[in-house]
Specification:
about 10% strand, 7 helices, mainly alpha, 2 domains, Rossmann fold, two-stranded antiparallel sheet, two-stranded parallel sheet
Length: about 150
């Protein structure tokens, strides 16, 4: 099993090479002059809508059809806020285990607020931060918040 993340970001030359591997099952190991046969199942993920990328000429149609045997579309978290409490508990449990701590109870009100209406101005106010400081922290921790427009 091979998981390829963000295949929509592959440049065209790499798309062609990947397609060849998927069609022939042959890969060329670094430093080798002999191809090697591989038999793998591929799971590919992208945050781009690949059929649109194909229509707009940014992704190879033949590679898209190779990948698109079974398609699972998962809506963005903002469209499925009911998953937030489950994710909070999952990550809190994992961090507690990682740091050798007991799992703390998570207050229901906290979970309700996290299901966090996306109001960053209110979040910054409650944290005692400026909005810009909140955005800098979100960016620092890789939470990909879009930057606010210049004031």
């Amino acid at each position: 099993m091979l998981f390829l993340d963000e295949v929509g970001e592959l440049p065209p030359p790499m798309q062609a090479k990947l397609l060849r591997v998927l069609e022939t099952g042959d890969v060329m190991r670094v430093g080798s002059s002999e191809p090697r046969r591989v038999d793998v199942r591929v799971i590919a993920a992208s945050n781009r809508v690949l059929d649109r990328e194909v229509r707009e000429g940014r992704f190879r149609a033949d590679l898209f059809y190779r990948f698109n045997v079974v398609e699972l579309r998962i809506p963005a978290l903002r469209e499925r806020r009911e998953d937030i409490p489950l994710l909070v508990r999952h990550f809190a449990t994992g961090f507690a285990r990682q740091f050798g701590r007991d799992m703390m109870a998570i207050d229901h009100e906290v979970l309700v607020r996290l299901a966090a209406r996306g109001n960053k101005k209110e979040a910054a106010r409650r944290l005692g931060l400026s909005r810009r400081a909140l955005y800098r922290r979100l960016e620092k921790f890789g939470l990909d918040a879009p930057r606010p427009a210049a004031a």
